[in-house]
């Protein structure tokens, strides 16, 4: 009933760009904080960014600050992650998640998760 679905991943060359989408259904999307996370094989899940219900307040991990931008369109029940200047170390499975008002980049604060989309940065 409550679902999140990521899309937009793929193979891109270093320095390229991708825009990921997170589409929600089955709940009141605009009442949740939405976060983006990524996980590479053998590594811990990393919190990249979050966006609050208003869409005004955003935060970023140091590893992506200045390169990635999060935004939301509540009318479309969709959150985006624009990724520019991609590096090979950005290669991972990317997830979006929905959580309470206090959630941000802590994985344990989120209730709902998508299945992930693969991003591979390679020449």
Write the layout of secondary structure elements.
Blueprint: E1 3-7, E2 10-12, E3 18-25, E4 33-39, E5 46-51, E6 58-60, E7 68-73, E8 78-83, E9 92-99, E10 110-113, E11 117-121
Parallel strand pairs: 2-11
Antiparallel strand pairs: 1-3, 3-8, 4-5, 4-9, 5-6, 7-8, 9-10, 9-11
SSE series: EEEEEEEEEEE
* Beta-strand percent range: over 45%
Rg (C-alpha, Å): 13 Å
Which outline best applies? globular
Average pLDDT reading: 94
Q: First CA to last CA: what distance?
A: 40 Å
Number of helices: 0
Task: Give the biggest beta sheet.
Answer: 7 strands, mixed
Number of strands: 11
Alpha-beta classification: mainly beta
Flag low-confidence runs: none
How much helix, percentage-wise, in residues?
under 10%
List keywords for this structure.
0% helix; seven-stranded mixed β-sheet
What does this structure look like?
With 123 residues, the chain is an all-beta fold. It contains no helices and 11 strands. The strands form 2 sheets. Strands 2, 4, 5, 6, 9, 10 and 11 form a 7-stranded mixed beta sheet that branches. Strands 1-3-8-7 form a 4-stranded antiparallel beta sheet, with no helix packed on it. The chain starts with a strand and ends with a strand. The relative contact order is 0.31. The model has no long low-confidence stretch (mean pLDDT 94).
